[in-house]
Amino acid sequence: MITLANFDTHPDFPVQGILFYDISPILADPALFREACDALTPETGSVDIVVGVDARGFIFAPVVAQTLGVGMSMVRKKGKMPGDLLESDATIEYGASELVLSPAGLDGKRVLVVDDVLATGGTASAVGEMLARAGAVSVRYAFLLELGGLPGRKVLADFEVTSVVEVPA
Predict the structure, then answer these.
(1) Which of 43, 76, 93, 110 is catalytic?
(2) ω into residue 55 within 30 of 0, thus cis?
(3) Pick from 120, 116, 112, 115: nearest CA to 155
(4) Set 34, 35, 43, 56: catalytic member
(5) Residue 102 β-bridge partners
(6) Which of 41, 127, 142, 159 has the smallest number of CB atoms closer than 10 Å to its CB?
(7) Would you call 76 a catalytic residue per the annotation?
């Protein structure tokens, strides 16, 4: 079972006052990696496409999509993907980020968004806003780690949210 003990922690990274949870030990252990991917894969409800969020969401999203037998799309940081893109600004725990998404193939789709951490909900809500503009009809979220005490889950109150591990507030 994946617990907080499976994460390495690094204080004051990437900025002072942030405790960074490193997923490397989970990735290095094939059984834990498979468990993480399985836990991020919904058991009920229909999903047409999985969206992985730059960068660590890219690790889990393709496995989840393959398991569900659906395709995958990516949310990238601005400047990392060409084409006709939707853009959104995300305010995160320690700064801001500009995100982009290709709307191709998302109209009318039921989407599962996969990312590593839910903290303030800034990235997730920016992704949800772009998916709505792309015409997605249903959006669900799955996170490996949820930082309790931060507003992420409240920000996503209108959505189904799954977290594998929660850090107590």
Answers:
(1) 93
(2) yes
(3) 120
(4) 56
(5) none
(6) 159
(7) no
Active site residue 56: yes
Which residues share a beta bridge with 100? 76, 87
**Is beta strand 138-147 parallel, antiparallel or unpaired with respect to 160-167?**
parallel
Token pair recorded at residue 167: 């850090």
Per-residue pLDDT, averaged over 145-167, amounts to 95
CB count in 10 Å sphere of residue 161: 19
pLDDT of residue 156: 96
Has residue 94 got a pLDDT over 70? Answer: no
Q: Report yes or no on whether pTM surpasses 0.85.
A: yes
**Nearest-angstrom CA–CA distance, 37 and 40:** 5
Which amino acid belongs to residue 125?
A: S
- In whole angstroms, how far apart are CA 40 and each of 68, 74, 81, 135? 11, 16, 25, 24
Q: Write the DSSP symbol of residue 93.
A: T
The alpha-carbon radius of gyration of the chain (Å, integer) is: 15
